[in-house]
Automatic annotation (TrEMBL):
InterPro entries: Beta-barrel_TonB (IPR000531), Beta-barrel_TonB_sf (IPR036942), Plug_dom (IPR012910), Plug_dom_sf (IPR037066), TonB-dep_rcpt-like (IPR039426), TonB_haem/Hb_rcpt (IPR011276), TonB_Hb/transfer/lactofer_rcpt (IPR010949)
Any one of the GO BP annotations: siderophore transmembrane transport
Subcellular location: Cell outer membrane
GO MF term list: heme transmembrane transporter activity; siderophore uptake transmembrane transporter activity
A Pfam family the protein falls into: TonB_dep_Rec_b-barrel
Keyword terms, alphabetized: Cell outer membrane, Membrane, Receptor, Signal, TonB box, Transmembrane, Transmembrane beta strand, Transport
Assigned GO CC terms: cell outer membrane
Major subcellular site: membrane
Family the entry assigns: Belongs to the TonB-dependent receptor family.
The name this protein goes by in its record: Hemoglobin/transferrin/lactoferrin receptor protein
Matching PANTHER family: HEME_HEMOPEXIN UTILIZATION PROTEIN C, TONB-DEPENDENT OUTER MEMBRANE RECEPTOR
Signal peptide: 1-21
Membrane topology summary: Multi-pass membrane protein
């Protein structure tokens, strides 16, 4: 494990300073994203490709290469991961194994983002500020509580160490870029300083764009955007302690429909979205004290959306959610019957939401609160070639209704166990069983008021929590020196069945819109990912095939993405500092969709080609120039997760030419 951790640190240094990779006479040691270190999958440091759970990592090098405008652009190649919503940047949401919205836990530097309100999006982060994205697929309630039916996504922002050159006391990086879609410029500036045990970081980013066009040249209405972000961090490392204070502010302004994630072009509003996240993290790590490795995060996450309707009532609506919490854990390592890494702790958070219309209460987003306490424990037990990992979590919810008449409490125990067997040095099969749950949201419980003219929401304070039971089997394969000395090949294959009881579904009837438990749903699937890196060139593959059904109605679930295969490859001209590559994505037809007007909605299959290149001159190693072309052939296509019946008047974003220039100093 120490050698693998050293490899991960070396790769992080190379990503932070491309010159290290370009000045060597020989290719750098080959590694793949499955060799990256993750702390999300088990709450302890582990190599992603060695785990008995499907965990994926997008490192800083990949973040920079993608030059993405949204978090979803960064994770779209991960098997089983899709995005839902029309291509309006802040309205899109992640979907993991067919489950989205509040069925995925989002964490930003350890702070929970519980915001979810009617087609308004959840991922309010500029990717330019991210150093790593970790995606855990499958139920994760044992570690992260309510909402982790589909999985968890951890976003980690940059720190001074990602900006400063080794040994430097001051430095920074500036970038500017442009894309043809929406004629959109972007820019960023980050400054870092280090003095003894202290470090400080300040960063700002921004981008703007006009309306996008699809593959047929049709304007995607109301897709213009303007966003700015600010990030500040203060670090202190006295001895074996680490303190980090982080503050981040994201602001986005645009004009778009109230239901921005759908293809509608009615009920237009001027929207301002602000997310402010403040967190304080403390950790202690002394190798001479294996029983003590605590981590504590105290945080406040505030999301505020203000909307001025340009049609109809022309009301001014406010939608806010404030989450305040603490997450504390300790890992004790000891021997006995095998080697143990026992992680235990607690999480407490409180959500306070408020909806207003012209400063009066808005029942469509009711003013309500909830307090949640979770206690968890997990033991990673190594017994020779076997790794057994049992875990359990107890959550208690206290939910307070607007009028105090329908207050309620919910308790839930979420167990998990996995077993991995290192049967051969290159092969590790594993099996796992995990339960997840999602308590009904405050809006689902207490919503009211008009949905649309002639139709009204009906609250349901008797909703039961959703509970999932996931069985999974897979195998991790790892090889070295396959085609040449120093290369590396990683492969993961997995199959799962996720049975969900008391699935919560919103149904629009003739005059009412009701939310209720529908009974049972089942999602099954297979996933495969393979990654090869030989230093000078690499090849990666990701594939997933999912099927989801409502077992009560024998109808397919609407959120299941189509089968998909993604292949990416590239070559590094190390002497010239040039990297070139491309990506091919093939998506099958999706003909399994619930019947709406008597005929199931179908989404055609499609294929996409993306190309990219970058240049770090050997004479100027702190300079990086990048060029990319997305959807090279300007193909007109739709993802099944936002297609509708009747079909929308536009498709996904068409060809997009992107360029950027980055200077480190």
């Amino acid at each position: 494990m120490e050698k693998r951790n050293l490899l991960a640190v070396t790769l992080a240094l190379i990503a932070a300073n491309p010159a290290l990779a370009q000045t060597a006479d020989a290719p750098p040691p080959a590694a793949t994203p499955l060799d990256a270190v993750t702390t999300t999958a088990t709450r302890t440091r582990a190599v992603a490709g060695d785990l008995a759970v499907p965990a994926a990592v997008v490192p800083r090098e990949e973040v920079e290469r993608r030059d993405a405008r949204s978090v979803l652009d960064l994770i779209r190649d991960i098997p089983g991961v899709e995005s839902s919503g029309v291509p309006r940047t802040t309205a899109m949401q992640p979907v993991i194994r067919g489950l989205g919205d509040e069925r995925i836990v989002l964490r930003l530097d350890g702070a929970r983002n519980n915001f979810n309100a009617g087609h308004r999006g959840r991922t309010f982060v500029d990717p330019e500020l991210l150093r790593q994205v970790e995606v855990l697929r499958g139920p994760a309630s044992t570690l992260y509580g309510s909402g982790a039916l589909g999985g968890a996504i951890a976003l980690r922002t940059i720190s001074a160490d990602d900006i400063l050159q080794p040994g430097a006391s001051f430095g920074g990086a500036a970038s500017m870029g442009w894309q043809s879609q929406g004629s959109g410029p972007r820019g960023s500036l980050a400054l870092g300083a280090r003095a003894g045990e202290f470090s400080v970081l300040g960063a700002m980013t921004g981008f703007t764009n006009g309306n996008f066009t699809d593959g047929r040249g049709t304007t995607i209405p109301y897709s213009e955007d303007e966003a700015t972000s600010l990030l500040g961090k203060l670090g202190w490392n006295p001895g074996h302690h680490r303190f980090e204070l982080s503050a981040m502010r994201f602001r986005d302004t645009n004009t778009l429909p109230i239901a921005a994630s759908t293809a509608t072009t009615t009920s237009i509003t001027d929207r301002e979205t602000v997310q402010e996240t403040l967190s304080l993290r403390w950790s202690y790590d002394d190798p001479s004290m294996p029983l003590l490795a605590p981590q504590v995060v105290v945080y406040r996450n505030h999301v505020d959306i203000q909307e001025r309707r340009l049609t109809g009532t022309r009301a001014v609506d406010g939608t806010t959610l404030t989450t305040t919490g603490i997450d504390a854990q300790n890992t004790s390592r000891f021997g006995g019957f095998g080697a143990h890494a026992l992680t235990y702790g607690f999480e407490y958070y409180r959500d306070e939401q408020e909806g207003t219309s012209n400063s009066s209460a808005r029942s469509q987003f009711p003013t309500a609160q909830q307090s949640v306490l979770g206690l968890f424990a997990q033991d990673e037990i190594t017994l020779g070639a076997f790794t057994l990992t049992p875990g359990v979590r107890l959550d208690r919810f206290e939910q307070e209704s607007p009028n105090g008449l329908n207050d309620r409490s919910v308790d839930r125990i979420s167990p998990r166990v996995s077993l991995g067997w290192q049967v051969l040095p290159w092969m590790q099969p594993y099996v796992s069983y995990a339960e997840g749950f999602r308590a009904p949201s405050l809006t689902e419980l207490y919503v009211g008021g008009q949905h649309f003219p002639g139709n009204f929401f009906v609250p349901n304070p008797n909703l039961r929590p959703e509970v999932s039971r996931n069985k999974e089997a897979g195998v991790n394969l790892r090889f070295a020196d396959v085609l040449r000395d120093g290369d590396r090949l990683r492969v993961r294959l997995s199959a799962f069945r996720n049975d969900i009881d008391d699935f919560i579904e919103q149904t629009v009837l003739a005059t009412t819109t009701v939310t209720r438990n529908i009974g049972q749903a089942r999602i099954t699937g297979v996933e495969a990912e393979a990654q090869y890196d030989a230093g000078t060139w690499w090849l990666g593959l990701g594939a997933a095939a999912l099927k989801g059904d409502n077992l009560e109605t024998n109808q397919p679930l609407a959120s299941i993405p189509a089968h998909r295969v993604s292949v990416n490859a590239g070559y590094r001209f190390l002497d010239q500092g040039v990297t070139v590559g491309g990506r091919i994505t093939a998506t099958a037809e999706q003909d399994r969709a619930p019947a709406t007007t008597g005929v199931a909605q179908q989404t055609s299959g499609y294929g996409l080609l993306d190309l990219f290149a970058s240049w770090t001159p050997t004479a100027a190693p702190n300079l990086r120039v990048a060029l990319a072309v997305d959807n090279v052939f300007d193909h007109a296509y739709r993802r099944s997760t936002w297609n509708s019946d009747p079909a929308p008047a536009f498709y996904e974003t068409g060809r997009n030419i992107r360029g950027s220039l980055r200077i480190a100093f």
